[in-house]
Amino acid sequence: MERVFIGVTFLYLLSSAGYLSYLFLQKNALQQISAAILVTAFLGHTAAIGYNFFLAGHIPVRDLHEALSMVAWTLSGSYILSLNRFNLKILGAFAVPLTSLTMIASALLPHASIETQTNFRSIWLVFHILAVFIGEAAFALACGIGILYLFQEKAIKTKRRSFFYRRLPSLELLDASGYTCIVAGFTLMTIGLATGFVYAKLVWGKFLSWDPKEIWSAITWLIYAALIHERLTVGWRGRKAAILAIIGFCVVIFTFLGVNLFLKGHHGAFTRW
Questions:
Q1: d(Cα 142, Cα 139) in Å, to the nearest integer?
Q2: At what angle do helices 92-108 and 2-25 cross, to 10 degrees?
């Protein structure tokens, strides 16, 4: 099965090269080939994760190696879905290389042999993990769109038909697409937190234990809740929304990696990552 993951990583890298070439050359054939390779990689990745799920009897996120693989899978799948929704082909130059780097990081980490605990088989844990991971993938896409927005805005303000000006869509489309990703991510994170509370009650006997990951997840939720609230009530759009989407994703990264690496809690002890 490790060979399958190596093959999938190679396909992600190949697709990344194609999307970066598309960024510079703007040849539609490059984007179409890269998208086809990405879909092939995603399907292979799905089969590998499904096979591991079948063998272990639980969702494979027991350590950082498996968790990063799941991150890459949800990110690639979310981008493929976004292509049908927004047709932001240029976003692939951000999403696919990020997927590839995540898979490389996963491959470099040791795959610890961890005895499966009964708690891992809870259906609540499955819903919790999938909702949170897909939600964070949506936040990653919102971050990428925010970065593209800032580049395009700068190009327009300087009144120069620069490199990015000729390659990026309108500010309105970028802003609307980023907001849609944030709403989707926020909805999924809310579901993930709710199912996580139920799971915590079943495992530890209480809904909230003030675990560092729980606290930082709540902080992340509040950041995106504030962004949505301010957009609906004050009209936060454009540059402010783009910057906050980028900041929010930085907090997501810290919540996912930093909390587990530097802080102690149930999540670190339970999953070893």
A1: 5
A2: 150
Q: Which residue has the tokens 């697409």?
A: 177
CA distance 252 to 230: 20
The domain made up of 1-116 is a member of CATH 1.20.120: yes
Tell me how far apart the alpha carbons of residues 157 and 113 are, in angstroms, rounded to a whole number: 54
Residue 190 token pair: 């809310």
How many helices (DSSP H) and strands (DSSP E) are in the chain?
Answer: 10, 0
Task: Report how far apart, in Å, the C-alpha atoms of 246 and of each of 47, 144, 167, 239 are.
Answer: 32, 8, 21, 11
Pull the structure tokens for residue 109: 């980490």
The domain spans of the chain are: 1-116, 119-273
Record the pTM.
0.89
109 contacts 64 by C-beta, under 8 angstroms? yes
* Cβ–Cβ < 8 Å for 11, 44: yes
Half-sphere exposure of 214 (CA within 13 A, CB side): 16
Residue 272, pLDDT score: 44
pLDDT tens, position by position, 15-73: 999 999 999 998 999 999 999 999 999 999 999 999 888 887 778 887 888 999 999 99
